[in-house]
Amino acid sequence: MNALIARLVAKRLGIMLISLLIVAFAVFFATELLPGDVAQILLGQSATPEAVAGLRKAMHLDQPAFLRFLYWLGGLMTGDLGRSYANNREVADLIAGRLANSLELAFVTTLFSVPIALTLGITAAMFRGSTYDRLVSVFTVSVISIPEFMVATLAVLVFAVYLKWLPALSVANDVHGLGELLRIYAMPVITLSFVVSAQMIRMTRAAVIDTLDTAYVEMALLKGASRRRIVLKHALPNALGPIVNAMALSLSYLLGGVIIVETIFNYPGVAKLMVDAVSTRDLPLIQSCAMIFCVSYLLLILIADLVAIMANPRLRNQ
Amino acid sequence: MTITNPGRKGRFGWHMNAVGIIGAAIILFWMVVAIAAPWISPYPVGKIVDFDYYGPMSSQFWLGTDYLGRDMLSRVLMGARYTVGISLAAVTLACFVGVTLGMIAAVIGGWFDPVLSRFLDALNSIPSLMFGLVVVASVGSSMTVLVLTIAVLYAPGSYRFARALAVNVNAMDFVTVARARGEGTIYTIREEIFPNIIGPVLADFGLRFVFIVLLLSGLSFLGLGVQPPNADWGALVRENIGSLSFGAPAVIVPSIAIASLTISVNMLIDNLPRRIRDRSD
């Protein structure tokens, strides 16, 4: 059985690598569409033709696009992300600190939203059809169907403008003590938690309801088990796989949310770096940030897949 | 949550509950606004009509004024054009391409199906807002670019959905009979498969429309969508975000407009008559 699982995991990894290659291809050629000569743009109007030609050669710009793609890919593999056009620093250096900030934000958000979403999702499934369930449903549908920036602006309006509990902007470089840290993280984390947990609640509820519809749960009901016992003892252990799967999938919504949230709250993370790079058209930086996003997205999907395989023996026979 | 009413049937042979009708009415309202915007807006969109900026709601300016003193009502009405228009164009393109390819893949099968599916799955694994950023950064933002980019991002999902439905229909007896009669691929797709998946495909169309409205608003909010002096609802929020700290209507109204559109599409789809939504079951 273990060999079988190992083979499935290897297969998933292979699929992920192929996806990654196609994604890298798409990202590289999307950024290649930029009109104009990069070397010329970098050196400015007053550059001599020799200088431009020299830089073109140094940046491999005189070679066909496909070769440059291979160079770039090779660079990515070896950790050489290239140099930023805007300030000529190593992209890897620019990203390193920002990535840590973004991961911190994601980690704190996960820490907050998972327990809340699990509780709400499971209880909503337990009391399916009740007023409580409807309230939760209305809440999740509303949050899912409004843009992330609206959640953020509402959070600012409520917590910073009306209640005046929290500052509207977060600047992570002047932190003194835990209290301030909490205040700075609070707004971005609240916003992201709303976005992510709405998805998580919906999917958790669906997963639990799926197991509640099975024959063995009906059997437990016929034996006279209480609702609490049915859910906690019979349904939940079997719904655990789908729930973890749902959590990994909903965490991938972090990636879209984090771009908006970091921009609104001026949070120094990778997403803000990328949005800034877009406004300066700093292609190496954009490419690297884009790849970081795609890799983390694919990793989350991979985890979700693997958990689903581990949890459900029937999926192993595909 | 759905209130089924099997006894009563409307004029079209089915009945929709109140929530669904409210949703449909709000969607219809925004559609009409999008078409009629230039004739019903009280002031010219770009004209500065108030000396004060971020004005409050008044009888003269129903929804207040924006950061330059332009009438918000006119701007929101015109914004409907961009938000609804671009999203509708993009979702139509995405679903047309996705559903067509999906049905072809399901009917032809062979090597075509797995190769296309793998490729589109890979495309699907690109976070959409991020890919939008990359494309807009490299080619700049225009209506065409926005529609095409968004369509490329959402076609794979539509493909996946339509293919899964079409594979089921394809295995049914009447398709086998059509094949045995000697009907070609195009006929099979058009006459046998498509009519049997149209209901769920329409529901999927609506959901995808919601995602696209949200993506477009997000892009515009980041300043990468519709470019000034034009503004869709996302761009209106961006323009007036400065008034957030004193809660002027200028930043709240466009947000509400987006939410009213997306929520009502969800309301309509959730309450579509079973006969339309689950036709393939």
Short description:
Chain A has 318 residues and is mainly α. Chain A has helices spanning 2-32, 38-43, 49-58, 65-77, 91-126, 131-145, 148-162, 177-212, 215-222, 227-251, 253-264, 270-280, 283-311.
CATH C-level label of chain B: Mainly Alpha
Portion of residues within helices of chain A = over 70%
CATH structural class of the largest domain in chain A: Mainly Alpha
Spans of at least 5 consecutive residues with low confidence of chain B: 1-9
Summarize the largest interface: chains and residue counts.
Answer: A-B, 54 and 44 residues
Order of helices and strands of chain B: HHHHHHHHHH
Bin the strand percentage of chain A.
Answer: under 5%
Beta-strand content bin of chain B: under 5%
Largest sheet of chain B: none
SSE order of chain A: HHHHHHHHHHHHH
Helix/strand/pairing category of chain B: mainly alpha
Using only C-alpha atoms, the radius of gyration of chain A works out to: 24 Å
Domains of chain A, number: 2
Distance between the termini of chain B: 20 Å
Overall shape of chain B: elongated
Q: CATH topology of chain B, what is it called? A: MetI-like fold
Please bin the fraction of helical residues of chain B. Answer: 55-70%
The CATH H-level homologous superfamily of the largest domain in chain A: MetI-like
